[in-house]
TrEMBL record:
PANTHER family named in the record: C4-DICARBOXYLATE-BINDING PROTEIN DCTB, PTHR33376
Domain of life: Bacteria
NCBIfam families on file: dctP (TIGR00787), TRAP_S1 (NF037995)
Gene3D superfamilies given in the database record: Bacterial extracellular solute-binding protein, family 7 (3.40.190.170)
Keyword Magnesium assigned: no
Keywords: Signal, Transport
Pfam families found in the cross-reference section: DctP
Organism: Ureibacillus suwonensis
UniProt protein name: DctP family TRAP transporter solute-binding subunit
Stated family: Belongs to the bacterial solute-binding protein 7 family.
Length: 328
């Protein structure tokens, strides 16, 4: 494994930073957990290019992909400690601290890329970003990674097929509850651990986007892929708040403009990469791609339907209404 977690330490960042040389150089260390050839990996690189270009090389964004610095939950701690200045976790990973963010985990609500774009740029997403200030984090924008599918070691076609299965999930209560409603057992795990867990047959299935299933080779072991589009995956692009406040207004503007400039490109990238990797999976002789038919989808939706009422009543009815409004 080229990027052993921990092989790139804080000392390594400090050493690299010292080598830069320019007096007024600003370094933004950006850590993430996915492969470089994915919608988040490529977006992080594009962002670095734009910021460097707009600042004439004065601001450098150094991207550390593949969890080489920090795993899912450590990266948030690292951001809060200003060990790194930027991360872009999946929104589901913020829900322990900000339960209302589970609104984006509700299954089968956002159904098209157009709706996803509308939500990630709409009123709800603005409110979600503002909530980050409670954690002393500066919320910048959202990136997309499209829709989640299921990869599994046995075909999952009907809702009953989930029964008794151990499913890797991210740590959001709504996602975990979704699988309990399907009589499966959710196993929350860090992204970095998924490959190992599949390899050692410790989980039966997991939900993820095609770009993650393909780039992390989950399909080589879990070779039944159900195209369910049951949930979305979005990334909250965020910065350490003190670091943000230490930047001049002009430099803040460079960051904001770079993100704005690439927003539409990023949404299209997510659609394109997931589509291209799906084409590649279709060509894999040992991979079975299962299209969920309407009847099976309905059954599945019926099993998880109590989640809407639960979220509405117990978590945040206002956000649920905003979500419905944004996709309308
Ligand atoms: C996962 O844990 O499956 C994803 O959140 C990974 C990612 O960042 O896309």
């Amino acid at each position: 494994i080229a990027y052993q977690q921990g092989a790139f330490s804080k000392e390594k960042i400090a050493y690299d930073d010292e080598q830069v040389g320019l007096d007024d150089q600003i370094i933004i260390n950006f850590s993430h957990v996915v492969a470089e050839n994915t919608p988040k990996g490529m977006a992080a690189k594009k962002f670095a290019e734009l910021v460097e270009e707009k600042s004439g090389g004065r601001i450098m964004v150094k991207v550390y992909p593949d969890g080489m610095l920090y795993s899912d939950y450590d990266e948030l701690e690292a951001l809060l400690d200003n060990e790194v200045q930027m991360i872009a976790p999946t929104t589901s990973k913020m829900t322990e601290r900000l339960p209302s963010w589970q609104v984006l985990d509700l299954p089968f609500v956002i159904e098209t890329n157009e709706q996803l774009k509308a939500v990630l740029t709409g009123e709800l997403s603005g409110k979600l970003l503002e909530e980050l200030s409670k954690l002393h984090i500066k919320g910048l924008t959202f990136w997309s990674n499209g829709f989640k599918q299921i990869s599994s070691n046995q075909p999952i076609i009907r809702a009953e097929d989930f029964k008794g299965k151990q499913i890797r999930t991210m740590g959001s209560d709504i996602i975990k509850e979704q699988y309990r409603k399907l009589n499966a057992e959710p196993i929350p795990l860090n992204f970095d651990d998924v490959y190992y867990e599949i390899q050692n047959q410790l989980i039966d299935a997991q939900e993820n986007t095609i770009s993650n299933i393909y780039s992390k080779k989950f399909y080589t072991m879990e070779n039944h892929i159900t195209l369910s589009n049951h949930g979305i995956m979005a990334y909250a692009v965020m910065m350490n708040e003190n670091f943000w406040n230490s930047l001049t207004e002009e430099d803040q503007q460079i960051i904001i403009e770079s993100l704005e400039e690439m927003q539409e490109w990023q949404f299209e990238l997510a659609e394109r990469i997931n589509g291209e990797f799906l084409e590649k999976l279709y060509k894999e002789p040992n991979v079975e791609i299962i299209q969920l038919n309407e009847q099976n989808k309905k059954q599945w939706m019926q099993s998880v339907s109590p989640l809407y009422e639960y979220f509405n009543q117990k978590v945040n009815g206002t956000y649920f209404n905003l979500l419905l409004q944004d996709i309308d």
